[in-house]
Amino acid sequence: MPTTNTTAKDIFCPRCAKHYDITAVLTLCECGAPLLVDYDYEKASSVIDREKLKGRTANMWRYLEVLPVFDCDNVATLGEGGTQLLVSKTIGPELGMPDLFLKDETTNPTGSFKARGLAMAVSRARELGLKKLIIPTAGNAGSALAAYAARAGLECKIIMPRDVPGPFLVDAKYHGAQIELVDGTIKDCGERATDLVKNEGWFSAATLKEPYRIEGKKTMGYELAEDFNFELPDVIIYPTGGGTGLIGMWKAFDEMERMGWIGSFRPKMVSVQAEGCAPIPRAYEEGLDYAPVWEDPHTLAAGLRVPGAVGDFLMLEAVRKSGGTAVAVSDNDLMMDTKELSAKEGIFSSPEGGATLTCLKMLLNDGFVKPDERVVLFITGSGYKYLDVMQEWDEEHSA
Questions:
Q1: What is the mean pLDDT of residues 236-265?
Q2: Long-range contacts made by residues 172-181, C-beta under 8 angstroms, separation at least 24?
Q3: pLDDT score recorded for residue 178
Q4: Are 320 and 79 in contact (CB under 8 A)?
Q5: Is the pLDDT of residue 1 over 60?
Q6: CA 190/CA 307 separation, integer angstroms
Q7: Which domain holds residue 347?
Q8: Is residue 301 situated within a structural domain?
Q9: Which of 156, 230, 264, 345 gets the most CB atoms within 10 Å of its CB?
């Protein structure tokens, strides 16, 4: 067997500290919390160091020693990761910010950061002998699962809200996925997926309902560290629905410190959501450790329309421990800033990416972010999946 040098050793619960066998097929902990992969960091520091990364292929599998795949033949890849960190050429100078950066995840396969998580989840599913994968999704995660399931030769079923932007449907169909549309939000899709898992034998790749999507997402944190020569930025502004990316980067920073790659400094982690669906900002403001489900969620940024997240306590913990914050922005502002990213930086972003620019302006205005700080905005997905949404919004606002 062509083995990897992975140092993955077991699975643990960040809430109750229970450990599980990494060879088992796992979902949530017995206590209901998400499960995370643990590594032998002493061993990891001896088999990989920062210098060994130089010359490796610029994708997320360059960090294979701290990723949970044991057999190289099980890796399902389309070249995900290794995305560009771009210095802002126009918006930053206009805001008086010489160190404003844009992490452009739109260049991933299927057009979003979801490629990282689903490439890992599908690779690990194949390694564990799973054949049928199902996912509730607002769009991008479904596109990614469909593509990687096709790559791996696995069966795939996608449950989406009926009002999902049209390109997501076309994308998933062309990748051969079975599609079911549900009235309501991703929460309703999740309930339907749970029924199908129980009754038809599917395995759920839903956000943080299995331990491996986060392992793909955490590679964004490793890449940022490399991009800045292992001196982390001052602030990271991240659009959060289920929050796997934010939690994953926070995990990556801890892992790198344990391997001796970085010190104890952490960026302020900022979670941005839409005013029409803002459970994390509300919980943050109210001092809660968990985020109650948001009633009647609505926003044009489909990826932010997540009324309740199983990893809510992990998001809030990362935000608070880092000295960060959680912000809600209006649909009108985030759409205007999505256009500004295109017109001034050349990045055709999804509305979620526009929300990070809106958030930055708000935080600059109230003094939370200083103009001389090094700030990274995560542009998590491409605007091409939202063409119908954008056209309709433009028509309404040009009248």
A1: 97
A2: 172/142, 172/143, 172/146, 175/143, 175/146, 175/147, 175/149, 175/150, 176/146, 176/150, 177/142, 177/145, 177/146, 177/149, 177/150
A3: 97
A4: no
A5: no
A6: 11
A7: 85-111+214-398
A8: yes
A9: 156
Q: How does the average pLDDT of the chain come out, rounded?
A: 96
Tell me: pLDDT of 2 over 90.
no
Mean pLDDT of the region 137-147: 94
Amino acid at 159: I
d(CA 235, CA 229): 16
Residue 155, judged by CB atoms within 10 A of its CB (0-12, 13-18, 19+), counts as middle
SS3 label, residue 190:
helix
In a domain, 34, yes or no: no
> Can you say whether the dihedral through the CA atoms of 314, 85, 382, 150 is positive or negative?
negative
The answer as to whether 64 is a domain residue is no
Q: Is residue 361 part of a domain?
A: yes
Band the pLDDT of 399: cuts 50, 70, 90.
low
Q: Considering the entire predicted model, what is its pTM?
A: 0.96
> What is the domain count for the chain?
1
What is the edge-to-edge ordering of all strands in the sheet holding 203-204?
178-182, 155-161, 132-136, 203-204
Residue type for 347, please? I
Neighbour-count burial for 67-106, b at 16+ CB within 10 Å, e otherwise = bbbbeeebbbbeebbbbeebebeebbeebebebbbbbbbb
Pairwise CA distance, residues 210 & 188, whole Å: 19
Place of tokens 């050349």: 346
75-125: pLDDT as tens digits: 999 999 999 999 999 999 999 999 999 999 999 999 999 999 999 999 999
SS3 178: strand
Cβ-proximal residues to 193 (8 Å cutoff; 6+ apart), any chain:
134, 135, 136, 159, 202, 204, 206
Instruction: Specify whether the CB–CB gap between 26 and 211 falls below 8 A.
Output: yes
Q: What tokens does 260 get?
A: 């001796």
pLDDT band at 52 (very low <50, low <70, confident <90, very high): confident
The residue written with tokens 């940022």 in the block is: 224
Residue 80 is given by DSSP the state -
Tens of pLDDT, residue by residue over 267-299, are 999 999 999 999 999 999 999 999 999 999 999
Q: For 6, phi and psi rounded to 5 degrees?
A: -60, 145
| Residue 301's CATH number | 3.40.50.1100
Strands 8-12 and 19-20 turn out to be antiparallel
